[in-house]
């Protein structure tokens, strides 16, 4: 799964303008996280349903951004689901650098995005966790 990290000016309306530009191109944001960064800046991480269109919008908006592979987990909405996924990643010696949640398009099922060093291995582990939970 592809994540975009965008560095924005930390001022009113900046995030709204970017989200509107994505929406105008039919891009659905699946999950996002926004945090203040250095003075006057913020970091906006997002996963969308259309990475190619997202890239085009970010370019047209002249943003400073990077792309990273992340692992996605479709977890059931019940007690212990996140604990089980995080524990399995730990057993696989995968450190979670950051995580955030969203909603899967079409099903509205919860998804968790994990920023990890080895997204491929983490995805395999998380697929096994999801299969066991089903």
What features would you describe in this structure?
With 134 residues, the protein is of the alpha+beta class. Helices cover 35% and strands 37% of the residues. The protein contains 4 helices and 7 strands; from the N terminus they run E-H-E-E-H-E-E-H-E-E-H. It has helices spanning 14-24, 51-60, 81-91, 119-133; strands spanning 2-9, 29-36, 41-48, 64-69, 71-74, 96-103, 110-116. The strands form 2 sheets. Strands 2-3-1-4 form a 4-stranded antiparallel sheet, covered by helices on one side. A hairpin with a 4-residue loop joins strand 2 and strand 3 (41-48). Helix 3 (81-91) crosses helix 4. The radius of gyration is 16 Å and the shape is globular. The two termini are 21 Å apart. The relative contact order is 0.21. The mean pLDDT is 93.
* Helix coverage percent: 25-40%
The number of distinct helices, counting runs of at least 4 residues, comes to 4
Outline the biggest β-sheet: 4 strands, antiparallel
Distance between the termini: 21 Å
Which secondary-structure class do the elements indicate? alpha+beta
* Total beta-strand segments: 7
Task: Report Rg.
Answer: 16 Å
Shape: globular
Strand line-up across the major sheet = 2-3-1-4
Q: List low-pLDDT spans.
A: none
Q: How much of the residues is beta strand, in percent?
A: 35-45%
Overall average residue pLDDT: 93
Order of helices and strands: EHEEHEEHEEH
């Amino acid at each position: 799964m592809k994540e975009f990290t965008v560095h924005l000016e930390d001022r009113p309306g900046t995030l709204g303008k970017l989200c509107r530009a994505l929406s105008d191109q039919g891009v659905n944001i699946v999950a996002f996280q926004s945090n203040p960064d250095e003075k006057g800046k913020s970091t906006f991480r997002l996963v969308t349903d259309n990475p190619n269109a997202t890239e085009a919008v970010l370019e047209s908006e002249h943003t400073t951004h990077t792309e990273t592979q992340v692992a996605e987990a479709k977890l059931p909405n019940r007690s212990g689901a996140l604990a089980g996924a995080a524990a399995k990643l730990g057993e696989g010696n995968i450190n979670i650098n950051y995580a955030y949640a969203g909603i899967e398009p079409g099903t509205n099922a919860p998804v968790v995005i994990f920023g990890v060093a080895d997204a491929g291995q983490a995805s395999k582990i998380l697929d096994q966790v999801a299969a066991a939970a089903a």
